[in-house]
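User: Sequence in, structure out. Go.
Assistant: Echoing your sequence, followed by the structure tokens.
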Amino acid sequence: MGVFASKGRFRAVDACTLMPPPNMLAPLVRNGARERGDSRPRTLLGQTSGGDLGSQCKWSSVPTGQDRPFRTVRVHVETRKRRQGPVSAEESAEKALALWRKGTSPSRARTLTKVELGEEGYTRTDQMTVQITVFRTVIYDLHAKFRMSNAVVDVSARTHTEPGEKERALVLDLAREVAARLDRAR
């Protein structure tokens, strides 16, 4: 019966086509530039047919290591495929987003917030501490993750200074722009 399950709205999405133009990214990263790398959708083995497709596009500050307010902004898109049986591509995307939400540890739970974004969206701030001998670095990743049909999109920004509401609003605004661009994509 899986033949009648929906394949979803999106076949494959290039994340860099969703990234706003450099002038819109200027308030996020200092002298931002796109990081090298191929953004075309790929599966784990590099093919574009079969399984789920992932694509990523990153803009980082130049020179490296500058926070203003972020070092890097990234858009990652995973286009989910219909599974065998009666599981549609949309259901598969919904389950992927639910797994991400479920992966929020108790220490992060207070930072997971439902937002109006796509068909279902959330924000969260991750924190990682790196300790090398006497040198200690704290890294913050702000995420706005949402689902639209069978696409799961993660818009994130990385900084080494503790983010506040202003930084969260910037990431959410970027995610809304990405969602608008995805909505116009066919």
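User: And one key feature?
Assistant: The chain is about 25% helix and 30% strand.
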